[in-house]
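ok trying again, last paste got cut off:
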Amino acid sequence: MTTLTREQLHELLRYDPVTGDFYWRVQTNPRALVGMKAGANSITWGYRQINVDKKTYKAHNLVWFYFHGVFPTNVIDHINGNRLDNRIENLRDVTRQQNSWNLQKAKRNSKSGYLGVDWKPERNKWRAQIRVGGKKKLIGYFATAEEASVAYQTYKKERDS
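nice, full thing came through this time. structure:
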C-alpha cells in the first residue's frame, strides 16, 4: 500500500477555495467523473469523506494536507462549527480538548438540553462543569438549568480569551 503524496493529491483533485470543496481532475472510477465534486457526506459524523486509492479520508484532513504538505498532528477544528465548511481559513489543527470547547449545543442524550449542565438529585440542583486539561472542573450548582448554562458559557468565554 502506497502513501498518498501531496503531488498525487494535487494531480487527482482540484480545490476550490471559495467553497472549500474538492473536484476530480482525473477519472479514478466509473462514478468519479472529471469535474465532479469529490466525495460524499457521512451520515454518521456529518463530515465530507473522499476515497483516494481505496482509502477513505475526511475532506478537511485532505485540505490541510493539500495546503501544508502534512496531515494534521492533532484534530481539525471547523472554526465556525460547520463540519462541511472546508475552506482553509475555517480549519485549524488543535487538540481534542480545544476542539471540544467549540461545541455549541448539548448532545442529543442530554437531560438538561445545555452543554456542560447536568442534574444532581442529591443536591436538588443543576451542576455546571467543564473539562480542563483532561480533568473535570466544577463551576457550581444552580437552581435552574438556564443559570448553570450561563455560568458554563461565561467560564468558557473567560478561558478562551
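cool. The beta strands are 13-16, 21-24, 40-41, 48-52, 55-58, 75-78, 91-94, 117-120, 125-132, 135-142. Residues 145-160 form the longest helix (16 residues).
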